[in-house]
């Protein structure tokens, strides 16, 4: 019922804007004149402004074709409507603004409110945020818009180890400080948390993304204890941006109506992210890695890992920048993504042998950007995935071709 209401509301909003004279719409980039950090990604997007009103709308689309083989077996050609995301913002009053982000995944099979918060500025260093917030763990969770990336797939570590676009109802503070070539930013939130599904799921392993399937996290906290997420980021205009983040809290239901039924069990996540552009050759490098520690009950088998590690690095090299087919300053890029995830860091108690359950991938790519807001992407994936017993890894390889654009 909730999804139907959201869908009807979305259609009504589209109909409302279709009645507006297009001449009153003006595309703007919602960003400060000053340089930005990853924490600014929610506002650093192109919007359509309705003149003389505080309302702005925007969004992006991702769709692709892919043909992959795993150990020589393929499901054939696949066309995928990955996601349609719509964001709406409003300047409510002086230093008070609202932004929402609604995502339709897989042709509308899943509909989610990823972000819906009220921001109140008291001081550049002290700003309030409350509502449905996106937990700032790593960089990709906040800065995930498809048109910003040269790859059709999101990073494995950000989607299958960390829960990509992980958002919860919460409240907190954020702020920034500028000084010559330096920027310093921070975020700190208390929010909804994980639940027992991170160790009780169909994956039959420790799997943090399973918590996203629980809609009740927007209404109640399973443990009754808020999740804390904090991040500090520093950027030098000549060097790049470095971010350090932490997310942790109790995930299990350890008491019921005041009666203790279990000990408190925590999940703790540490992440580091970095991005830079090499000045002469304009090579853009970005990446992040994360460490996860989960207090798994001793009664669980060793396939439920209590430590996980993973990350990715993207390298993007512009090959050509010129006017092509009437598009000014269009860009042709050569890129490559390197990925690794270990869902179970450690060794078997009985044999001392390394526990498997890991994956690595190399993904070269060629992308064409007719404008900064639209990208065509051709990717080739070569991937090796090993099971928990360390058997010979399964090999996945194949091509994908896709388009992503803001609108």
From TrEMBL:
Higher taxonomy: Bacteria, Pseudomonadati, Bacteroidota, Flavobacteriia, Flavobacteriales
Species of provenance: Flavobacterium flevense
InterPro entries referenced in this protein's UniProt entry, alphabetically: Porin_dom_sf
Protein's name according to its UniProt entry: Porin
Domain of life of the source: Bacteria
Gene3D superfamilies membership: Porin
């Amino acid at each position: 019922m909730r999804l139907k209401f959201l869908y009807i509301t979305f259609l009504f909003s589209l109909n409302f804007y279709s009645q507006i004279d297009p001449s009153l719409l003006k595309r703007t980039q919602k960003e400060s004149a000053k340089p930005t950090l990853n924490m600014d990604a929610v506002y650093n997007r192109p919007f359509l402004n309705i003149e003389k009103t505080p309302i702005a709308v925007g969004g992006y689309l991702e769709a692709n074709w892919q043909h992959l083989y795993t150990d020589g077996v393929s499901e054939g050609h696949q066309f995928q409507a990955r996601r349609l995301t719509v964001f709406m913002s409003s300047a409510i009053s002086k230093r008070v603004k609202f932004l929402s982000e609604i995502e339709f995944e897989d042709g509308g099979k899943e509909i989610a409110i990823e972000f819906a918060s009220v921001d109140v500025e008291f001081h550049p260093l002290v700003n309030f945020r409350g509502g449905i917030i996106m937990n700032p763990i790593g960089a990709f969770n906040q800065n995930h818009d498809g048109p910003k990336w040269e790859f059709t797939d999101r990073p494995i570590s950000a989607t299958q180890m960390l829960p990509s676009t992980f958002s919860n109802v919460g409240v907190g503070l954020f702020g920034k400080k500028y000084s010559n070539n330096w920027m310093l930013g921070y975020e700190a939130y208390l929010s909804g948390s994980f639940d027992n599904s991170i160790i009780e799921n169909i994956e039959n392993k420790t799997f943090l993304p399973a918590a996203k399937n629980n809609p009740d996290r927007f209404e109640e906290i399973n443990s009754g204890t808020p999740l804390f997420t904090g991040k500090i980021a520093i950027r030098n205009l000549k060097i790049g941006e470095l971010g350090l983040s932490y997310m942790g809290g109790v995930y299990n239901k350890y008491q019921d109506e005041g009666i203790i039924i279990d000990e408190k069990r925590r999940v703790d996540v540490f992440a580091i992210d970095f991005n830079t552009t090499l000045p002469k050759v304009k090579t853009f490098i970005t990446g992040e890695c994360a460490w996860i520690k989960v207090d798994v009950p001793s009664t669980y088998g060793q396939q439920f890992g209590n430590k996980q590690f993973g990350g990715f690095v993207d390298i993007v090299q512009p090959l050509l920048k010129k006017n092509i087919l009437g598009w000014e300053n269009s860009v042709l890029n050569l890129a490559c993504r390197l990925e690794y995830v270990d869902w179970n860091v450690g060794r078997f108690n009985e044999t001392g042998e390394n526990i498997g359950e890991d994956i690595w991938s190399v993904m070269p790519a060629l992308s064409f950007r007719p404008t900064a807001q639209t990208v065509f992407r051709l990717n080739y994936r070569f991937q090796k995935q090993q099971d928990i017993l360390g058997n010979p890894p399964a090999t996945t390889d194949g091509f994908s071709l896709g388009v992503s654009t803001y609108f």
